[in-house]
Amino acid sequence: MAWGYGIRTEHGNTLAKSPDFNEDRVVRRVDLSGGMTLEISGDSDPSLLQGLLDEERAANQAKERFLSSMSHDIRTPMNAIVGMTALAKNHLDEKSRVLDALDKIETASMHLLNLINDVLDMSRINSGRMQLQTEAFELSELLHDIMIMVSPQVEKKGHTLRLETGEIAHERLCGDALRLRQVFVNIISNAVKYTADGGNIGISVSVHDLGEQRAELAFVCTDNGFGMTEEFLRKIYEPFERLHTSQTAQIEGTGLGMSIVRRIVESMEGTISIESEVGKGTRVEIRLPMGCEDRETEHGKISGRRFLILEADTDIQEKYAQYLSGAGIAFTLASSFQESLSMLTEAGFREEPYDCIVIGSRVIDSTGPLDLAAYFHKAHPELVLVLASHDSWEKLEYQAGQVGIRVFLPLPFFRASLIRALTEAMSDSGHTSGGDQYPDMQGRHILLVEDNAINSEITREILSVTGAQVDTAENGREAVDAYLGHEEGYYTVILMDVQMPVMDGYEATAQIRSSGRGDAETVPVYAMTANTFAEDIRRAKDSGMNGHLAKPVEIGSLMQVLRSLI
Amino acid sequence: MQAYQETYVANCREIQELLAPMQDLPESFEDFVQARQGRTGRVRQLREENSLLLKKHLVPALDGLMGAGEEELRDLTDFAGQLLDWKWNLDVGLALTIHGAMLRRCRLLKDRNGMIREMYQYGMSMYYHNRMVDKVECRLRESRHMLNEMLFTEAGTYFRYFEEIDDEETRGYIIRSLANIAIASRNRKRKIAASARVLKIVQDPYYRALAPNLPWERFLRGTHQQMSANRTELSRANLTTQELALVLESCTEVFRPEEQAENPSVRWLWPYYDMAYSCGFVGIAKTMKRLEGLIRQTDPEGTDMSGLYGNVQLPLYYGTLMRKHRELCDDGRYVSFLDWAYRRMLHAIVNTPREGMDDYYFYMLANVISDYVELPGNLSYREVTEAILAHMEEGLYVSSLRFGEMTALLCRYMMKQSDGCMDEAAEALGLTEKTPEEKTEALCDFARLCGLYHDFGLVKMRMTRTMQARRLLEEEDAMYCMHTVSGSDDLRSRKSTADLADVCLGHHAYYAGSGGYPETYVRNTSPFRQITDAAHVVSDLMDAPEESLADLAARMMEQAGSRYSPMAVSCLMDQDLLRELQEIRDGDGTRFERQLFERKRRNLMY
Questions:
Q1: Which of A181, A344, B353, B373 is deepest in the core (most CB within 10 A)?
Q2: Segments forming the whole domain that contains residue B443
Q3: Would you say residue B403 lies in a domain?
Q4: Is the ipTM of this complex over 0.85?
């Protein structure tokens, strides 16, 4: 069908026309200003044209409604931002009011950002510009990220959030992880928002094999929230449609989430279904076909190793048992720290030591995994410590490092991610000696500054298994000379006793730091001393030392320092 | 012990004596000042000597511990034993350091018996060291208790090899460690489970035969005592029937014989009555009557363990029960008995002779600070705490008076510079009807009082003695930071001192909240924030006595708005103020000594 357009003047003259304009087939005339007329010509049935025009009109009206809603939703937070900014400016000397205003600006800004993102997503989807990426990703990492993203909301509302995993035929899938995250977080966020405080949210994920490198990812989210009426369910996917009840009046949202979710799911050729009952709750099920890209998981490095798993959550215990037994890995489960200490003692007594302890998310009678790790790190430095947690590693990393945690295992885990974490724990490009794990420092140089012959001998003995070349100095003066006598970057670390004849450790460090060489300020210097007085530790730091190792030396602490440097 | 160790122990004993209140307060102020100056000077000297001894001898000894011979190791163990003897506890932190080093040595050498011994000793040192933060609500306390429990638990896990370990002493340490899980743990159920397990073991003839020389009867009695300490749980609904039975059985075992003895000690009678009350056998009225009887029967001049218990601990229990049964607080009869008992309590505290000021005495003092119940009509918390401060912490009292004077002066200048800057504080103190001059004076007086209490938290934590004997260890430094929370929690919960809490909490916090401690101090919510700002400035001025105020002020100016209040710091640009502050900080402290002297004379009336 070809449409043509022509514009006639009030005198009937053609002012302009399109190439397809056929004045004998004019189907419609529209009056324009200045007495001019727009004529539309075409071959089609006028009623069809009318239908099209009606559709166009409806679409325009929908657009207008959309714009109207959106402009309201944009204007509201903008008003808050502008208003609060003015308030803050007027009360600069009242810190509490300024802080309050800034909090409100932050909330309004986030809301606005979410709205803009949703609108842009909608626009991209509607115009066919949303491109789905297809990349391999680990399902366990995706789920871990999702749990981190929704945890704050869940915690704020005091909900119980339970994640269960069923059959996981493939752990490594091919798809758009970013969009998947968006979909799942959206669904879970709605469940959290539309459930009264202290509710229960259940998530279940499974992956079924479809053959030929294809799998189906099934995601189910249930809640015991407010529920939705049949009537609302019929329009749940329409933009800006939100549940309006007395219970939900204060709940924030853009009203675009489910529209976006459905579009994405449909783009992925998946299905989404929702069941809901008012006052009882809602169940959302999404099924998505995906490619899969399994990787062979080598567990050679952990065969023959012994693992102690400290975890009280029975579901997670089952997963450990399932995956580790399946791979033939030797492990023991403990639910409390008492049990774990008992097992460690027994293992030591029987000379069948454990190689690694995995500290889990829930341990009976414990004040937290980091306290447990701190104890094991000091008492059992031969153990490699792994932390399994739902929390974000970024949040834990610094403190975890301080207490000797080597590897992080994000929860939930599957077979491959578990084996990988344990393999990483057992390797770290390191090697073993007598069952203990040491960092590989072949080709590296350590300067050991110690005036006590026995201490020097013991420390050299400990360091020898790392493969590092250990140079010794008996006082601070010799240490400075040794440092200056080699090229920049020669020493990976300098282990410096403090109280020594001729020149003490503080002075030696200060001289190294002020030597003017390129690595003067960066070469790591660690004090090794029994002196744990706060003032002296501060003095060590002021003289340029990076840290402090207590004497008699704890192997675990020493190895942790070395690992952190390579 | 080696010579330096003997000297250190002797120095610590002397410091304890010098820091103890004077037995007889001199009649004349001049004699008092002279005596104090002499003592203060001597303490300073001993502290320096201690620091030198540790640096010159102990640190190298621990540095070279791996090569130490048997004699040297024995000497160190003896030394630690003198420092932590469970009675005087001259230096618990140092004992902890020594045992920590010994434990590390044993682990490195894979000396199993040594490890078990040192885990026990290190655990005991840690238990006493943890008392510094025992009554302070903080995460550090939870972590340290966890660590303590794990130490004893690990040593206790060797019980399964009891038969295989042929050294009887080591076996004894295993049993002790198992029992001590109960004292280290903060979980009631684990405490009961630990004690129950040990009761079974120590009554088992099999184990007694394996180690016949161990003091089994003492273990048995001690474990029953430990189990009976759970009697407060009898009134709560969170024990199983078996647990209840275990606790009751131990209570009966420990207290019944004492109750039936000819002259039963209040230390055992009260727990017996407490058990009956907790079980519900006896109601509150009868329990209070019994408690009154016990307090009355205690010799008011008694300052031994029994005397302190009856004169100090029992009135605290009386107050606690009144707080629990609120209706008693409206009954004048109980209120006036409590007041009477509290006055006797202060009398006992003030009149305990030096030889009675052992670890138990300080434990009682800490309980007074934590558990004192202030009611309308009885001795105010302010009065009691000021009496304790002046009695026990003379140095802190005087330095706090200086602090208060400097804070008041700075506040005066701040009010002069910015009229109305302390209006919120004035309103909170009910001064709105006063004239501007009266308001200024009242606020300055209030600032002085805040200054007196700014480091109050240190008293309960028993840190001042450690700080005067030597420099703090790294662990103690972390605990030290809790003194603001410790003090403010106690001050805030009593009406007579509630207003003083904010300055106590925030005087080490940065103005912009970007540093300092504690994190829980929120400046903007306090009506006394400007006074706290002033106190923070004064705190840093006093912490650098060797520097001139002009230099310090210039440095503070650079950090105005971040670390320090711009208003407070800008006042320091006034040379007159700097001069006056310098005079207070570095000048003659006679007037502060006089205030101490007068306060101590007032204490004599108790």
A1: A344
A2: 393-603
A3: yes
A4: no
